[in-house]
């Protein structure tokens, strides 16, 4: 497999490269908006915007081997922008019969659990947040792919994930 540097040099010279980059990082880029629970249409917009940003900034990348980190950060920023502009509400279909809608107390309990979970997650370090989002929403990614995306050693992915989960558990227990 070619390194990112070789692929970028190939792309800049016009011989090849873009398809190799997309194939290498496509699942990783998709995992970010999915981790923010965006709709399919919004996730597709984030995905496309992330690749467009890469095309616009490709000649300015200083560390091609950190491309996975750059893509995750860009997709994260794009996802946050979508959340801010679209809001976090998920509209109910008003044409559905009342019996299909969840009971208000169920909605309140679910919302409270989600609020506490996201609140605790947001207090973790950025690396832990990214690692746990990737683990939750793209479990099919190998440790090598996760390590590449986060810019860490492959051997530290499992232990870092364990420490992040333990810290998240402690924070959630403190909120009870």
TrEMBL record:
SUPFAM superfamilies: Sigma2 domain of RNA polymerase sigma factors, Sigma3 and sigma4 domains of RNA polymerase sigma factors. GO terms for molecular function: DNA binding; sigma factor activity. The keyword DNA-binding applies. One of its GO terms (biological process) is DNA-templated transcription initiation. Pfam families: Sigma70_r2. It comes from the Bacteria. Coiled coil: none annotated. Residues 21-88 form the RNA polymerase sigma-70 region domain. Keywords: DNA-binding, Sigma factor, Transcription, Transcription regulation. The keyword Transcription applies. Belongs to the sigma-70 factor family. ECF subfamily. PANTHER family: RNA POLYMERASE ECF-TYPE SIGMA FACTO, RNA POLYMERASE SIGMA FACTOR HI_1459-RELATED. This is RNA polymerase sigma factor, sigma-70 family. It comes from Lentzea fradiae. The lineage of its organism: Bacteria, Bacillati, Actinomycetota, Actinomycetes, Pseudonocardiales.
